[in-house]
Amino acid sequence: MGQTIIVQDLQKRYGDVHAVDGVSFSVEEGEFFGILGPNGAGKTTTLEIIEGLRQADAGTVEVLGMSPWPRNPRLLPRIGVQLQASSFFERLTAREQIRTFASLYGIPAKKADDMLTVVGMADKAGTPAEKLSGGQAQRLSIACALVHDPEVLFLDEPSASLDPQARRNLWDLLRSINDAGRTVVLTTHYLDEAESLCDRVAIMDHGKILELGPPATLVRGLDSATHISLATGTLSLPAAREVAGPDASVTDDGVTVTIATRAPAPVLTELADRNLLTGIQVRGATLEDVFLHLTGREYRA
Amino acid sequence: MTPFRSLSRAMLLGFLRDRSSLFFTILFPLMFLVLFGAIFTNQGLAKAKIIQVGPVAILDQAPGLGEILEITKQNDLAAAQEQVRQGDFVAVVRQQGDRYQLFYTAADQVRAGTVRGVFGQLVGQANAAGVPQRFTLAAEQVEDKSLKAIQYITPGLLSWAISMGATFGAAMTLVTWRQKKILRRLRLAPVSTATVVSARVGASVGIALVQTAIFLGVASLPMFGLQLSDYWWMCVPVVVAGTLVFMAIGMVAGGLAKTSEAAAGIANLIVLPMAFLSGTFFPLDSAPGWLQSLSNIFPMKHLNEGMLDVMVRGQGPASILPELGIILGFGLVIGLIAVFLFRWDDV
């Protein structure tokens, strides 16, 4: 498999702010790649440089073997970009929007209509873009980014401001787009989104990449505690301490008793012996813990 | 569909589905036309009533003066002057040898001015000809002075309507497309900037031509009575050129503004005073000389003049070429400023 995107030592300054400070990574063909970080981490600027919307102060970018800057008309038909805000023509229906975008790439109206069906928007084709819900607008804008069948799809915070149900639906859509063989690059400030969707994640903060790898590997490399939770009352605090052993910590917030341990197996065995597995929750480390570990501060999107 | 056609279509649909922009571009100027047409109907039609005391050669020998002057003959100068003072007549004229005397009222300056103008010409031409019998009145000059209100109002208001439509169309498209990131999206599509700009030009020119058709249609109704001259269709290139200039002005407003509200404010600030100072609402004939000279720096003045020339003054097709050149010159300069101010993004 070839490398679809190669980024080397990217630099971008806005006045005193070092928005992007020496970012390097590469994205494989067909990969689902995530750039994760809090607001202001430099994710969007990095993405915009790769898309060709901004010029880097230093460093090189190669997308499908071409440089995106200056504006490269041979590259543009091969990439699809969904922008952070939903960029629609005012007062046009969903169908008119996607047909207009399709025409910019010389794609016939029929194919544009098919794409509406792919993203599950066929029944909203006659609705003006202004009247679509957040999730629908996001689907439409992804359809508009995909209408010319690009090899690489860029998504900038696709699930921002969506309700949980709409987010899950969007994730399913994004997975199917990636399964169809497209390379997908997305920025997000949701840890769970990156964990659930991405083959590999770059964690960014203050313009630098702190860590890069598959989410599972990043989490495993942490050697952090596993949290086992039971409803308060099913197990008394002293009994819980006894089960947990000397190296674990036990807390009770009045609703849940939580045992944090680095050796979950004996604890779970003991709980099973006491027939206390009903309603039990076991949570391993998440990207949240990775971020906390890397930056020493709580993750706040 | 080609990118040019689909983008123009997107802009036209966006325009047609926006009631307020439809109102301000089409109906609002039309309301002014109806209003001004009704107010000035009588004033424009009324002839100037004058008294002739004794024989006055230039009046007796000039045919066609009945169009603008209603002449009553009397013998007593003092009594006639008193009637002028009371407002029954505009002026008294008499001839004493080679000398023409004109006594006019200060109360009705517009018509008194017309009468003075007419006599100035009559005398001037009589002198130039030297032979009173060969005296003729140049119809063109008289036509200009006796322009009916609707003949003046229609080209003026149409110039204003087109300027507004083109300015706002360009400014609003630029600002909202930048705000909504459509400009970025277009930049990431394989279409040239020229295609995007020409699509907007196509949409604006289309709107301007529809405005022209509706305006001329309404003004030609019997109740308004607009009389178009033979070469009125030459207003089409003038309309197109005017649209281009004011689109450039709109691009400047859109380049300076961050929000659509600010863009509307800047566009109004430029277009509205210019409309007054260019004589699109009221003739500048009675304005001070410095104002008349100043008005030449406004493209709307030339747009207005070009429209008047071809639509009602009955001038031939070639006569608008200078005005057309001036308008396009303005367009070029302002267009360059607009390119300089153009931004793809807010930041």
UniProtKB/TrEMBL annotation, chain A:
This protein's superkingdom? Bacteria
- Which keywords does the record carry? Antibiotic resistance, ATP-binding, Cell membrane, Membrane, Nucleotide-binding, Translocase, Transport
Location in the cell reads: Cell membrane
Keyword Translocase, does the record have it? yes
Query: What are this entry's molecular-function GO terms?
Result: ATP binding; ATP hydrolysis activity
Classify the protein's membrane topology as the record does. Answer: Peripheral membrane protein
Pfam families xref list: ABC_tran
Domain (ABC transporter): give its ranges.
5-231
Please cite one Gene Ontology biological process associated with this protein: response to antibiotic
Q: Where are the transmembrane segments?
A: none
**Major subcellular site:** membrane
**Has the keyword Transcription been applied to this entry?**
no
Coiled-coil portions: none
Give any Gene Ontology cellular component.
plasma membrane
Q: Which family, according to UniProt? A: Belongs to the ABC transporter superfamily.
Q: What is this protein called?
A: ABC transporter ATP-binding protein
Question: What is the organism of origin for this protein?
Answer: Acrocarpospora macrocephala
UniProtKB/TrEMBL annotation, chain B:
GO BP term, example: response to antibiotic
Q: Name one GO cellular component term.
A: ATP-binding cassette (ABC) transporter complex
Q: Please tell me where this protein is predominantly located.
A: membrane
Q: Does the keyword Transport apply?
A: yes
Instruction: Indicate where this protein resides in the cell.
Output: Cell membrane; Membrane
Task: Tell me what topology the record assigns in the membrane.
Answer: Multi-pass membrane protein
Which positions, given as ranges, span the membrane? Answer: 21-40, 157-177, 197-219, 231-253, 265-284, 320-342
Record has Lyase as a keyword: no
Q: Where is the ABC transmembrane type-2 domain?
A: 119-345
Q: Name one GO molecular function term.
A: ABC-type transporter activity
Alphabetically ordered keywords of this record:
Antibiotic resistance, Cell membrane, Membrane, Transmembrane, Transmembrane helix, Transport
Pfam families attached to this UniProt entry: ABC2_membrane_3
What does the sequence similarity comment in the record state about its family?
Belongs to the ABC-2 integral membrane protein family.
The protein, known as: Transport permease protein
